[in-house]
Amino acid sequence: MVRANGSVRPSPSVTPGPGAATPAFGPSGTPLPGSAAAGLQPVVGINFGNSYASIAVLTSEGQSECIATEDGERQIAAVISYHGDETYIGNQAIPQLLKNSKNTIVGFRDLLGKKFSEISESDKSSTRSAPVIEHPSQPDVPAYSVQASVDSSAAPRIISVSEAATLFLASLLQSAQDFLGAPASGAVLTYPPSFTLAQKQALKVAAEAAGITVLQLLDEAGAVAVATSEVPSDAPSDRVQLQLDLGASSLALQLIQIRSGLAVLLSHSISTEISTGDIDKTLIEFFAKDFTKKNKIPLDLPHGDKRAQTLFEQFLPFTKRTLSATAKTAASLSIESLKDGYDYTGSINRMRFSMLAQPVFGKIATAVSSLLSSASIDASQVDEVVLVGGGGCLPGLLESLSAKLGFGTDDEPVSSPDLDPTEVLARGCASQAGLIYGLSVEEDGDIRAVFEKELLEDVVEVDAISKTIGVLITPAPSSAEKPKDGEAIVPVIWVDTPIPARRSYTFEPASGKVTIEVVEAEEYVFTEKVTLPKLENDDDDEEDEEEEEEVKHRSWKKSSSVGKVELERKGKGDVWVEITVSKEGKLSVEVREEGEGGATATL
């Protein structure tokens, strides 16, 4: 009945208050006049990505919200550049990749906690930014050598990977505190599934050196689970959630089972062979051909015409944002002096983009299929798909995956929360920070200890239900539909629900006497072939062969019987069933006819 020591990632959620939250800031991320910004909780959620970062805070209503920097950017480039005595951090540093690449630092997040000898040669010898070197005075420590003075004869400045991360995190903290108007009392930061214990320790050290009070290092899967608990969803509260994070350098997939606010990691994978870089490469090739067609000037990309390549990379994100935001009009790309003094203006519509992106979408579908197979989960059993990262905004991605993999069923279509993929992680961290900040040291000391322990450890061990517990009602309620296959079992407590647990189910009986069998059940998927309806405007007199389509359904079968309860109703009230599993794994069942003087029974 009960599986001991299941590996469960803690991801308690913050329950949103009634009604929609009142916006506290304008489009640029600045507080609106008369807003409740002064009443914000002094905590911050930070999504620290390898290419981009984002910051979120809590509104006075307890809702998480991403904020913009003083430049009006919510997606903050993880770039640091030195130009003479000036230091550029974030989006301001992006143009420096074109004219000052040797003094511009990128990709430092993924190098945290690694020794210089552990870094691949491709990561060391970047052609678009400052290369990674071994620190001259600290053996096996990765660093960068940059010119940080107007005096060209001055010795170069050596900056370790940890120092670069600290400098960048300090700028994020400053932006958050400028918005809050007060020092931040703590923050929750994300880390990717690929991070080792040493890398998490290095992230914590870098954050604390930046002046951040680290409340928790939260893995990205947990941050997504928390963020999705805040928004309305058609998915059940106990659900299987697929998280798809298509980033600038990798594709991270995580299959999560959420039970009672705790997220169980079923399977995960990460691939550096698939990323938004593949989409960018395809789009750049499309626009480069268009430039050559219009101006009769060939482009040798990516290495021959490095300047043109960098310009495409710099301006392409704006085109992709426009393409994601608008369904009808084309998105344009305009670059001054792309090559030999020739300007370029081109455009692309969603249909053309969909055609170009299909090979990449196909690779993503194959990766998702492999992940589901490793967890023995059918695509139709996925209740919710959450898109994360900049790639999650690409038009047609979810539709393409659903068509290729068959998410959901005709009975239960797959759900996707209404969340901006680029904001999910930061918002989840902000909600988690608010939860931890609100815990009392005296009354909630044990809970706080769990989060402190989670700073570096992967999982917290809990006991959980090993099989779904459901009820089989005879005769079947009048409202129940007879399943096309399997048995009419109603799941009450789902598999992997942490214990102790209590769930209830209410139904309208079909007769005065009912038998309720409590069972352990297993879910499975069966396929039915249905004949497609003939088109009304089909004037062909010849008898066409009827087309069939395979439709998937989720159903249940009984693996064992726990016991039966018979109830003879005294009136006409509905019947309420409550199943409880104690911390020790003991199961109890209470059945009651609703209404005064109703019949009762127990198991």
UniProtKB/TrEMBL annotation:
GO terms for CC?
Answer: cytosol; nucleus
Q: Compositional bias (Acidic residues) spans?
A: 537-549
Q: Which UniProt keywords apply?
A: ATP-binding, Nucleotide-binding
Q: What molecular functions are annotated in GO for this chain?
A: ATP binding; ATP-dependent protein folding chaperone
| Annotated stretches, region: Disordered | 1-28, 530-570
Q: Which domain of life is it from?
A: Eukaryota
**Record keywords: ATP-binding included?**
yes
Keyword set includes ATP-binding: yes
Which residue stretches does the UniProt record annotate as biased composition, category Low complexity?
12-28
**PANTHER family membership:** HEAT SHOCK PROTEIN PDR13 (PTHR45639:SF32), HSC70CB, ISOFORM G-RELATED (PTHR45639)
UniProt-recorded name of the protein: Hsp70 protein-domain-containing protein
